[in-house]
Amino acid sequence: MSGDTPCTDHIIAWKVRDRLGLDRVPNGVSATGDDTLIIANTVTPNTFEHPTCPVGDDPVPVINALPNEFPIGPNS
Q: What pLDDT, on the 0 to 100 scale, is given for residue 31?
């Protein structure tokens, strides 16, 4: 799933995993314990932080909404 910014790639991958029921990410790297993209203006080396995507619309609100709109775990 590629072809746009890394942020968009992450959003698409999250939604595809959710749709396929493959989104169980135990002990994920984010503060919420899932695979939410960790956005940082200044990336700390050796972390899972990702720089902001300066191209196009701001993806941060979409990324932050993913755990609520497409929660991890079994689909109901």
A: 63
Distance CA 21, CA 15 (A): 10
**CB count, 10 Å around CB of 37?**
23
The full 3-state SS of 35-52, as one line of letters, equals: CCCEEECCCCCCCCEEEC
Please state, as a whole number, how many other Cβ atoms lie within 10 Å of the Cβ of residue 72.
Answer: 19
Residue ranges per structural domain of the chain: 6-69
**Which of 29 and 41 is assigned the larger pLDDT?**
41
Q: What is the mean pLDDT of residues 49-64?
A: 73
**HSE on the CB side for 37, CA within 13 Å?**
25
